[in-house]
């Protein structure tokens, strides 16, 4: 955990889940909110209190909580596709696709799809892969957590509606990318549900770092390891469309609400490019600068 900032967490108690704060390595229970959605629905006031909360937390007693859960149950999950320069290049080589390496410069808009909110799991989850899969792939991603209802927001104001950021893994079953028996030229060829929304397909954690503490969101290191071997090592500066671009573009298609989450794309180093996929017993660890790190494993 990043001990220099205040972070938001959801953790397990004998009575169920609770919401709290992490400050200097300790967890403090929230006296006001019972779940993260309440925090986000009241984000303007909650964010104001964070400004001078550190000194007040230091004199309070922390809670004995060792089990962190997914920091929130998102209202909706949107994900942006092919949004890192290095990932575009590796997928062009791997799949022979004619991908534009600079779509923003040529005037294109970001591309989005949706992921089931029921696919979310938290740190240390044991994930059961889809039956008979042989192509389960990893994708570490910066996740944007919306804290303000917004529609048609400009790029310059887009980050004002962001409560904070967390870490996601957009797990993908590459065996279900395309529907069998459907012509390659058909617009109904692609199976986004099958490859992106199975149970456990969206590990989230370990905490939400509020935007005021994240630093430069366009210059964060992100990494992923499988069984201790470094697979992905990049930086959010390599995004094609940055966080503000994504929030703005999506808000022109749909009203964003507190508790919505936007996955911002993955960098190079995915299993598809390596011809290496997750299997039973594998342990995946991912980290993003100024947020933290967490693990999950494949059952």
Explain what the structure shows:
This protein has 299 residues and is of the alpha+beta class. It folds into 2 domains: 7-58, no CATH class; 77-298, Fumarylacetoacetase-like, C-terminal domain (Fumarylacetoacetate hydrolase, domain 2, Alpha-Beta Complex). The chain is 18% helix and 29% strand. It has 8 helices and 17 strands. The strands form 4 sheets. Strands 5-4-15-9-10-12-6 form a 7-stranded mixed β-sheet. A 5-stranded mixed β-sheet has the order 7-17-16-13-14, with no helix packed on it. A 3-stranded antiparallel β-sheet has the order 1-2-3. It is globular, with a radius of gyration of 19 Å. The two termini are 26 Å apart.
Which key terms come to mind for this protein?
299 residues; alpha+beta; Fumarylacetoacetate hydrolase, domain 2; 7-stranded mixed β-sheet; 5-stranded mixed β-sheet; 8 helices; 18% helix
């Amino acid at each position: 955990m990043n001990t220099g900032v205040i972070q938001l967490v959801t953790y397990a108690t004998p009575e169920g889940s609770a919401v709290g704060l992490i400050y200097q390595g300790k967890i403090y229970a929230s006296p006001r909110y019972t779940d993260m959605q309440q925090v986000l629905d009241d984000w303007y006031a909650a964010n104001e209190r964070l400004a001078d909360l550190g000194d007040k937390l230091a004199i309070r007693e922390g809670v004995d909580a060792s089990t962190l859960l997914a920091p929130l149950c998102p209202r909706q999950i949107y994900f942006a596709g092919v949004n890192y320069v290095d990932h575009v290049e590796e997928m062009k080589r791997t799949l022979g696709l004619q991908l534009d390496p600079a779509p923003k410069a040529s005037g294109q808009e970001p591309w989005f799809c949706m992921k089931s909110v029921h696919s979310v799991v938290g740190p240390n989850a044991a994930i059961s892969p889809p039956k008979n899969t042989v192509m389960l792939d990893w994708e570490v991603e910066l996740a944007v957590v919306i804290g303000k209802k917004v529609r048609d927001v400009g790029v310059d104001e887009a980050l004002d509606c962001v409560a904070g950021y967390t870490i996601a893994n957009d797990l993908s079953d590459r065996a279900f990318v395309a529907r069998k028996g459907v012509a390659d030229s058909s617009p109904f060829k692609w199976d986004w549900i099958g490859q992106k929304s199975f149970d456990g397909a969206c590990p989230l954690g370990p905490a939400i770092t509020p935007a005021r503490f994240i630093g430069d969101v366009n210059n964060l290191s992100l990494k992923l390891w499988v069984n201790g071997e470094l697979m992905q090592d990049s930086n959010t500066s390599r995004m094609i469309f940055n966080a503000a671009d994504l929030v703005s573009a999506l808000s022109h298609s749909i009203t964003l609400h507190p508790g919505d989450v936007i996955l911002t794309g993955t960098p190079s180093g995915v299993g598809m490019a390596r011809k290496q996929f997750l299997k039973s017993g594998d342990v995946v660890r991912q980290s993003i600068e100024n947020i933290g790190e967490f693990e999950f494993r494949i059952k």
